[in-house]
């Protein structure tokens, strides 16, 4: 039975100039996973569902998460004009108003984050620096440092790579041939979330790069009972 991979799937379009994140799952669970690095980064939000269709979606937690993510001056719109939705978004910090739908007699809600709210980072590694400098120094010449450099360059950073060897990929990353596969774990929730999503992203990324890569599959012997159970378990692929 095929099991859909929940949470975030990132697609890089137009040569990496456009980043599309697709989130699959319950919206009130997923918004809690949008970490502090995304605070006040969203320009516009559009809610497509109606309260009568997905009544459990419209919670104050969702409205508060939208306020946390909205950039000052950011906008929102939704087809519904329900009073509890308008009041909930106002309580979260949005300035709300009703508008006529195009070619429809019914009303819809639009809003704006007209104020600058303060959302301190919940963990220290997401606290934003006051510096506007976009320069980074990376130490190491392996795959991890190369991919980190590529990610920063794609975001417009200036990167300096320091390597102890005369050329990159002289250590373990210099193997003539490697294999790409996800690490499956039933016991570590972080690994179970990270590796299946990272595997699908890596597959798409390597296809787009000018490198030789053959997706011919692989065989994992399942003679051991524990490995067989791990491969068959849906928990490893969520």
UniProtKB/TrEMBL annotation:
Domain of life: Bacteria
A single cellular component GO annotation: cytoplasm
All residue ranges annotated as the MnmC-like methyltransferase domain in the record: 6-113
Keyword check for Iron: no
Molecular function terms from GO: oxidoreductase activity, acting on the CH-NH group of donors; tRNA (5-methylaminomethyl-2-thiouridylate)(34)-methyltransferase activity
Annotated ranges, domain FAD dependent oxidoreductase: 136-221
InterPro entries documented for this protein: FAD-dep_OxRdtase (IPR006076), FAD/NAD-bd_sf (IPR036188), MnmC-like_methylTransf (IPR008471), SAM-dependent_MTases_sf (IPR029063)
Pfam families given in the database record: DAO (PF01266), Methyltransf_30 (PF05430)
Keywords for this protein: Cytoplasm, FAD, Flavoprotein, Methyltransferase, Multifunctional enzyme, Oxidoreductase, S-adenosyl-L-methionine, Transferase, tRNA processing
Stated name of the protein: 5-methylaminomethyl-2-thiouridine methyltransferase
Natural source organism: Klebsiella pneumoniae subsp. ozaenae
